[in-house]
Amino acid sequence: MINIAKSEKLFSEAKNFIPGGVNSPVRAFNSVGGNPLFIKKGYGTKILDADDNEYVEYIGSWGPHLFGHNPEFIKEALVRSIDNGTSFGAPTEIEIEMAKLIIDLVPSVELVRMVNSGTEATMSAVRAARGFTGREKFIKFEGCYHGHADYFLIKAGSGALTLGVPTSPGVTKGNAADTLCAEYNNIESVKELVFANKNEIGAIIIEPIAGNMGVIKSKIKFLQELRELCTEEKIVLIFDEVMTGFRVAKGGAQEVLGVKPDLSTFGKIIGGGLPVGAFGGKREIMEQISPVGPVYQAGTLSGNPLAMSAGFAALNHIKEHPDVYDILEQKSAYLEKGMKDNLESLGLNYWMTRIGSMSCMFFTDVEVSDFKSAVTSDTKKYGQYFHEMLNQGIYLAPAQFEAMFVSTAHSKDDLDKTIAAHKIALGNIS
Ligand code: KE4
């Protein structure tokens, strides 16, 4: 067992001042049990906890660290930027460069607005769609997570699902009334809602590759039919690419799946590890946004030079190194093969999904294609597996319904260590 005395001390102190001792629930280890580790340093694929235990990690701050922790090119960009000050609350040139780069990398985006989190991006995108269509209702999918704006916390994924409150108290009936829930990968469930609410639905928002009920890829036929339905019914189709944007491909999940949304939302990677979000898409919709249009949307630190500098460095690195995704694919496929070989040798048939450098091993032998099949996973067994891996120096997401992220920094040694630990961990809990 690893010594985590300092983390335990810090956690008990934190709980006196911060709800649950954490600033985001999924960090609290509630679903895997035990004491969350307080991290004091990250470098490449490693993190160091308060007790100086080192781990090879696969959270990457829940997605931002496509290149591992603190890559030189992001650090240098931040140092250059901070020398000029942190934030001005006024337009800066780097914001133009960032907007141009996102538009260059994602063909469906014609105008883009920066915000400070994925939640702000998705809530603003739904507001823009409501303003553009004049319709109040929208459809989300069971198990998808779009951040914590009230109207999304209905049958939500990620921490809400992990902690057993997919529909949160505090969300008013009025707010929930306009949120309709369909089943992922089930076009009939969408059509039923659309035709029962004819001309009342302004938007459909989806994670085209879901990363918050574990990792689940939408079926291409389903997504194409969703696109057609939205076009026919004049509904704004929003792809929530906060996690998948620049993760699964240069152009995100929409490039992988070959379906074009009307609006997209981004976060995580585009901030290079700093607080960020963005939403963008068709000019006619985005021109609804204040000050050019009537739909109000604002933010004190939106487009702040620090986050823009780090994010621009990250995206520009992608633009200048298009082989990034070949590297990620090669490393991720190697890890997947090692884990699948382990499962086979142990006679286990847990369901595994992987899209590029995002993957998930579900503790179920059911084929996972939607929320209902995802929740057949044995989360207690996942908790045991999580701690078995942690004790071997491998830090995974402390929750079954999250993604495992490989970065360009993961070395063969890291991957081999992980594959070996994976086999021991499964052997110990089976
Ligand atoms: P933030 O507000 O947390 O920056 O982004 C919300 C969000 C929106 N859309 C998608 C597809 C997302 O995955 C997220 C946030 N992802 C979770 C991890 N599954 C954030 C981790 C946390 O809540 O601490």
According to CATH, the fold-level topology of the largest domain is: Aspartate Aminotransferase, domain 2
Any idea what the radius of gyration is?
21 Å
| Global morphology | globular
Unreliable stretches:
none
CATH superfamily of the largest domain: Type I PLP-dependent aspartate aminotransferase-like (Major domain)
Give the name of the CATH architecture of the largest domain.
Answer: 3-Layer(aba) Sandwich
Structural class: alpha/beta
What ligand molecules are bound, each kind once?
Answer: ligand KE4
Q: Strands of the biggest beta sheet: in what spatial order? A: 4-12-11-10-7-5-6
Q: What's the number of domains?
A: 2
Count of separate DSSP helical elements: 15
The end-to-end distance, rounded to whole angstroms, is: 19 Å
Averaged pLDDT, please? Answer: 96
CATH top-level class of the largest domain: Alpha Beta
- Estimate percent helicity: 25-40%
Strand content: 15-25%
Largest sheet: 7 strands, mixed
Secondary structure: number of strands: 16
Descriptive account of the structure:
This protein has 430 residues and is α/β, with parallel strands linked by helices. It folds into 2 domains: 5-70 and 323-429, Aspartate Aminotransferase, domain 1 (Alpha-Beta Complex); 72-320, 3-Layer(aba) Sandwich (Aspartate Aminotransferase, domain 2), CATH 3.40.640. The protein contains 15 helices and 16 strands. It has helices at 5-14, 72-82, 93-105, 118-133, 158-162, 173-177, 187-196, 220-232, 253-257, 283-286, 305-320, 324-345, 371-374, 379-391, 412-429; strands spanning 39-43, 46-49, 54-57, 111-115, 137-141, 179-182, 201-206, 209-210, 216-217, 236-240, 263-267, 277-281, 351-355, 358-362, 394-395, 404-405. The strands form 4 sheets. The protein has a 7-stranded mixed sheet, with helices on both faces. It has a 4-stranded mixed sheet with strand order 1-2-3-15. Strand 1 (39-43) and strand 2 form a beta hairpin. The longest helix has 22 residues, at 324-345. The radius of gyration is 21 Å and the shape is globular. Ligand KE4 binds next to helix 4 and helix 5.
